[in-house]
Write a structure and sequence with these properties.
heterotrimer, A alpha/beta, B mainly alpha, C mainly alpha, A: alpha/beta, Rossmann fold, 16 helices, disordered C terminus, C: mainly alpha, MetI-like fold, disordered N terminus
Chain lengths: 411, 216, 267
């Protein structure tokens, strides 16, 4: 499992063959004879402690660092000997410090590679606006600003837009969300996943943060000391079946909790047997609903079937609280929230159930503590994480149902 | 006869010498830039050559002006040639040092991302590094100009051009009532030029530096 | 960023605005030993060059040991007096101008000094000579050169004291040190590196400027250069120029070592 080339994926976008980088005067090579295949359209995360060679390997791909030996094949073409500048113009590149050109406007920054490639002015300008919109910055507001006039999160957005400018098939990203406050980082990660759903680039993403790797990666390459890849697999498999003690230790405690963050509620079947009552129901109907309920609370849904509140079963028939929307709904969770969010909401509201809604905010069902426990355990390693799974291209997280992704079995 | 009467009577010469002074300093400045900026560009990334260039330029600047003018008379004779040469040598350190500092001060992440996007070495230098170093280079030119405006006064001692001639005229007419006026005219001419030069560089910096480097 | 916007310049010195990093190992050795070796080699070459000449009467008048030594001593003597005066004036003035009550004067004083710096040295010397004819020539020369050399020391003293972190001063005050004790035990030691850089610049500047004293007859090694020019004797001209240059470079070298030695450890 440490050498993915042993079982070649049919559609590798990037193929690294026996790549070595040795620095003069150092006994051990930084990267020694490493082979790796990166499937088309996937996010592959290189994760590991600092100094493990993950950034070196990433920079070998666009030859910011020239390999000592070995071959780099991108989209079937051997690029090991091609002009490095031309190679890089075809590969998006975004880094933690953004590296935005401070003397150029946002638009000029994004236009860098398209200009190098000789695009027409109109085409460049249209592309800039398209990208700014894509990364959530209003073009009219931000086009002519300078990097120093932007917040850190906005700079990162521009950095990503700049990397995407010439629509490269391959993107390399070196901790692009590393220097951002946690709240903004999470927003950027979610947006990044949303954008990737549309553009389906092949992305190599470097981070030292296992949580980020688990959240973003279709596959994770866990780097060990000395430029060794200790495990290369889907996040689920890495978390539930670490290849060795090193990987287990790197994941750290709380692998099961991390697994919770892997599963969005859109992939979870919500129980639909919770008693509900429409908010249009009158007092008698409500009392009847409470009597027949087998739970302590009944959920009130409005005319659009959006959950609005709870009615307690112990309410007397003449209680004023029986009318209206009932007790406020402390939280309801949408399709992009994860099992982790669901568990968190339960702990926060001291309840053993949360309400799950669909994309449109309509009631989809409920999720209980017991259901989460069951989900986590049925999603455990034995469930299909075999060697063949490690080798094949793991379908994108948001992709059509796969047979091999444990998280999807509950759909 | 007071100072202003004297100046009114002598203003044609003062203006002519001021013009000479400006031309002299500009010659030194342009030559130092033509030599110093390429030298800095060639050496800023290599430790040893860079130290050598800076050390040599530092020695030039440490040699007292009268000694340097004197040394240059031997091969170049009296007049403008040793003056321009000496001024060029003096301006070299501020020009080279600030160019080096400016180029080395460019954020490595900016260079890395430029390389990562496929800009060639030459494109990075021309489109990224030099524009970003430009305010620092301008500062170097401004420092050099202030330096040269003062030192250029010595060139009159080797029969060179410029406002120094008024100062030495004052010296040779010591004892006459005009001596102080002549010296003052030379000095004030240089002070006025220094102030104007500062304003000119501030304006140059404004029009030639990207707005993105000035906003905060 | 060490942008070097005109601080301690102009006209001489290595132009270093602040203290540079301590040179390490081999480079330090090269700097300490290399510079005097090179200067001695230059002097040896000069000796051979002059020795190879058949000196005529005019040349012999300037190029004899007694004359050269007397001018050198004059040069050093004038420089020493000037530097002592500069230190005696500029350091206390710099300290005074950074005391709380006097801070409002520090801006105008620095601005005035900056304009003053634009005045060419030779202009200042000549102006004093023609304006104060009753003064002795040495007084004139010393006054003009002192006025000129005050600026780098004054400015660096003020900059050095200003950059001491207010938190450090406050904590010293908090420990019960009086204002004077804070100045002597905290502020001045912390300002020393920057002050030393200014003093070094002033030293080199002074040695160079004293060479101009010859124009008002105040002696020094500038005399040799002037003799060479006026008598059109290249060998004299070169000798005078080389001696002045070597002297300035030697002073700079020496001041650099002193700077390294006096700089407090830990800064």
């Amino acid at each position: 499992m440490t050498d993915a080339s042993a079982t070649a994926a049919p559609d590798a976008m990037i193929r690294l063959e026996n790549l070595t980088k040795a620095y003069p005067g150092q006994a051990e090579p930084a990267i020694g004879g490493l082979s790796l295949e990166i499937p088309r359209g996937e996010i592959v995360v290189f994760v590991g402690p600092s100094g493990c060679g993950k950034t070196t390997l990433m920079k070998l791909i666009n030859r910011l660092i020239e390999p000592t030996s070995g071959r780099i094949v991108i989209d079937g073409q051997d690029v090991t000997e091609m002009n490095p500048d031309e190679l890089r113009r075809g590969i998006g590149y975004a880094i933690q410090q953004t590296g935005l050109f401070p003397h150029r406007t946002v638009a000029q920054n994004i236009a860098t590679v398209p200009r190098l490639l000789g695009w027409s002015a109109e085409k460049v300008s249209a592309r800039v606006d398209e990208l700014l919109t894509m990364v959530g910055l209003a073009p009219d507001t931000y086009r002519d600003r300078y990097p120093r006039q932007l917040s850190g999160g906005q700079q990162q957005r521009v950095g990503v837009a700049r990397a995407l400018a010439a629509d490269p098939e391959v993107m390399l990203m070196d901790e692009p969300f590393g220097a951002i406050d946690p709240i903004t980082r999470e927003a950027l990660q979610n947006e990044f996943l949303r954008i990737q759903r549309d553009i389906r680039k092949t992305i190599v993403f470097v981070t030292h943060d296992i949580d980020e790797a688990v959240k973003l990666g279709d596959r994770i390459a866990v780097f060990g000391p000395g430029g060794r890849i200790a495990q290369y697999d889907t996040p689920e498999a890495v978390l539930s079946d670490p290849a060795d003690d090193y990987v287990a230790e790197f994941i750290g405690s709380g692998a099961y909790v991390k697994r919770l963050t892997l599963t969005p509620l859109s992939r979870v079947a919500a129980a639909t047997d919770w008693p509900t009552v429409p908010s249009s129901a009158d007092r008698e109907e409500r009392v009847a609903a409470l009597r027949s309920a087998d739970r302590d609370f009944v959920l009130v849904l409005d005319g659009d079937r959006r959950p609005v509140g709870w009615l307690g079963r112990d309410l007397a028939p003449d209680d004023d609280r029986l009318t209206g929307n009932g007790l406020p709904l402390l939280s309801s969770l949408g399709p992009d929230d994860t099992l982790f969010d669901a568990l968190n909401a339960m702990l926060a509201s001291n309840a053993d159930v949360v309400v799950v809604t669909g994309e449109d905010g309509r009631y989809r069902g409920t999720l209980g503590m017991a259901a989460i426990q069951e989900l986590i355990h049925t999603a455990s390693p034995a469930a299909g994480a075999g060697p063949e799974r490690a080798a094949g291209p793991a379908p994108g997280r948001s992709d059509s149902p796969g047979t091999d992704s444990p998280g999807k079995e509950v759909r | 006869m007071n100072f202003f009467d004297h100046l009114a009577g002598n203003y044609a010469e003062v203006l002519a010498l001021t013009g000479e002074h400006v031309v002299l300093v500009l010659q030194g400045l342009v030559l130092a830039s033509l030599i110093g900026i390429p030298l800095a560009v060639l050496t800023y990334r290599a430790e040893l050559p860079r130290s050598v260039v800076l050390a040599v330029a530092g020695v030039f600047l440490t040699i007292p002006s009268y000694a340097l003018f004197g040394l240059l008379i031997a091969p170049l004779g009296l007049g403008t040639a040793p003056a321009v040469t000496a001024l060029t040598m003096y301006a070299l350190l501020p020009v080279v040092r600030n160019t080096v500092v400016g180029l080395r001060g460019v954020d490595p992440a900016v260079i890395e991302s430029a390389r990562g996007m496929g800009l060639s070495r030459r494109q990075i230098l021309r489109q990224i590094e030099l524009p970003l170093a430009w305010p620092v280079i301008i500062t170097g030119l401004r420092v050099a100009t202030q330096l040269l405006l003062g030192i250029a006064a010595i060139s009159a001692a080797v029969n060179g051009p410029g406002l120094g001639n008024l100062i030495f005229q004052g010296l040779s007419s010591a004892g006459t009532p005009f001596a102080v006026y002549l010296a003052l005219e030379g000095i004030l001419g240089i002070v006025v030029l220094a102030v104007l030069a500062d304003l000119a560089f501030a304006a140059l910096n404004r029009v030639s530096t990207s707005r993105g480097l000035r906003v905060d | 960023m060490a942008i070097a916007p005109a601080p301690t310049e102009p006209a001489g010195g290595t132009g270093a605005a602040g203290p540079g990093p301590r040179p390490g190992g081999a480079r330090r050795l090269l700097r300490y030993a290399g510079a005097p070796a090179a200067l001695l080699a230059v002097l040896a070459a000069l000796y051979l060059y002059v020795g190879a000449h058949d000196l005529d009467r005019i040349e012999r008048r300037s190029l004899n040991a007694e004359y050269l030594l007397s001018r050198t001593w004059q040069h050093l003597g004038l420089s020493l007096v000037v530097v002592v005066l500069i230190l005696a004036i500029a350091v206390p003035l710099g300290v005074a101008l950074t005391r709380p009550g006097a801070r409002r004067f520090s801006g105008p004083v620095l601005a005035l000094a900056n304009v003053g710096q634009a005045i060419p040295t030779i202009g200042l010397i000549v102006l004093f000579a023609v304006a104060f004819v009753s003064w002795g020539i040495h007084t004139i020369a010393i006054t003009a050169i002192v006025l000129y050399g005050i600026l780098p020391v004054l400015r660096n003293t003020m900059v050095g004291l200003d950059q001491v972190s207010p938190a450090v001063i406050e904590s010293a005050r908090g420990m019960g040190l009086g204002r004077a004790q804070v100045l002597w035990r905290v502020e001045l030691p912390l300002a020393v590196p920057v002050m030393l850089a200014g003093i070094r610049t002033a030293l080199v500047l002074t040695v160079g400027t004293v060479a101009l004293a010859t124009f008002i007859g105040a002696g020094g090694l500038g005399d040799v250069i002037s003799n060479g020019i006026s008598s059109n004797r290249t060998v004299v001209l070169v000798t005078g120029s080389v001696l002045v240059a070597v002297l300035a470079l030697a002073v700079d070298w020496l001041a650099g070592i002193v700077e390294d030695v006096l700089r407090p450890r830990g800064i």
